[in-house]
Amino acid sequence: MKTYGGKVLFLDRSDINTDEIIPAKYLTEISKEALKPHMLEDLKLEGFHAQDAAVREAKVIVTRANFGCGSSREHAPWVFDVNDINVVIASSFARIFRQNMFNCGMLAIELPEAVIREIFEHKGADASIAIDFEKDILTVTSLKGAKAFPYQLAEFDKALVKAGGWVEFADARY
Amino acid sequence: MSIQRVKTLNPHERKVINMAMTLAEKIFRSHLRDEPFPGTKVLSIDVVLCHEITTPIAINDLVARGKDRVFDPEKIKVVIDHVTPAKDTKTALQGKIMRDWARRQNIRDFFDIGRNGVCHAIFPEKGFIRPGYTVIMGDSHTCTHGAFGAFAAGVGTTDLEVGILKGVCSFRDPETIRINVNGTLSEGVYAKDVILYVIKLLTVNGATDCVMEFQGDVVKAMSMESRMTLCNMAIEAGGTSGVCMPDEVTVDYLWPFISGDYAEKPAALADFKKWWSDEGCSYKKVIDVDVSDLEPQVTVGYKPDEAKNISEVEGTPVDQIYIGSCTNGRLEDLRVAAAYLKGKLISPMVRGIVSPATPKIFRQADEEGIISIFMDAGFCVTNPTCGACLGMSSGVLAPGEVCASTTNRNFSGRMGKGGMVHLLSPAMAAVTAIEGKIADPRKFRKETL
Ligand code: SF4
Known about the structure:
By secondary structure, chain A is an alpha/beta fold.
């Protein structure tokens, strides 16, 4: 299993698409490592600069609804993976992106909008998130204090993470 | 136009009370390979489709794992379509990886340059997609193939890799949203306008994790091409697959490929009907759309659900017109556009690009004089490719430029960084080219070809 948790990058917008996560022009790369400098390069979000230290140091993304919509490109989870971001927390995901995350052994955690709003209150306060994978609890810590939130994963998604991804899971079983 | 909601039963209730099933549920039942956990189904896959953007990393990973094999070379279909001819060393390398792999794995259905076309146009054209099939591809618009009564889903590279190696893929239990399209389409209004309108109703995530089932008189009267246009954009509402009920139109389209399997067409139809959603099956939602008053639709923002009536957008200047893609690059689309363009010149303020989606479409368009009509009007005709649709080649926009496009995605920068895209039908694209501004096809004469 990968390690999960750390500094949070807040992306305060819904419908962030895979073109924004990794532009199509980099789809000609055939190594995941080559994607690394281009994470979120075309993201349309006020005050966001892809090269900021806060972006490069993040280990967890917290965002709104329908994250990862658009293309099926697994380059989106990969560009996070090679930048050490293994957790995305949102009020909802596009199906293919969500599946791609778990297929890579990464976490796509869905929480109700009200909880997402509460987590967003820690924005700008040096927030970190710790994940207790066994207990399904995440803890947000910032200058504003700390709070734990339970989350739920589908049993299958959890099994994929434990196995290290879908190739490992499927290879052992089919 | 009315929207009606229907109570949803959870899948367990459904099974006990009601054996009636949707088309998607029937396909899931017939392809069920495993249910590792409640709510997760692992299906056996009938066709795994591959292109050069998302497959090379799967191939390299299989090689690195010492598992350079395929589950069945007959069930894997491969095309180079996104950037073709190769534009640089990197795209040339992607093509080479596909070519070498297809050869070493004995994949016979491999379509290289000269015989290649846009994946979701060429694979149906070859008869690879049949009612009741499960289809996956590392491409979000794989939902297109549901037009044949198949369950067809876009997947990422890892799902594709497992599909190639094991012939299986995992899905959550499918819920279906039924969309009844009734009424009569006015002159100048097409399948593209219907789907843009439906996406506006559903919003960009209104169908997430759902199958979008298109029914109703308007869909029954549609050609396979138009049904593919509908299903193609299911993903723009978040849908897993679009689906249509396979009927006489499906049988006619597939007949050259299935005539050996059935004594006559009615026998094929009877067989296909077993996939139809049963009377009394349960839907997550039923949407009734009467399209009799529907105006031509065009998107204005950076999300596919931001469609407006043409009357609100008419006169908006554009720089480029693009007619092509897996949404609207088929013969029917070129015929419609050519009927408006015949004998006309495009505005000197714009440039026009048309990309017939497959070599067969290109040749047929040429034989029908359609290619000449486009060229006489001042269009550039490209080889079959995705090209400009995803801003990788053959018509990339400059920052600040605007394209009127028959494609399916208007995300910021989709056709080139800083560029903007209006999604619209081939008819509207043609008249927009003539005017140099977004125009209403209902105000133009359609010539007979
Ligand atoms: S034509 Fe466009 S949308 Fe269709 S497969 Fe190609 S790039 Fe994707």
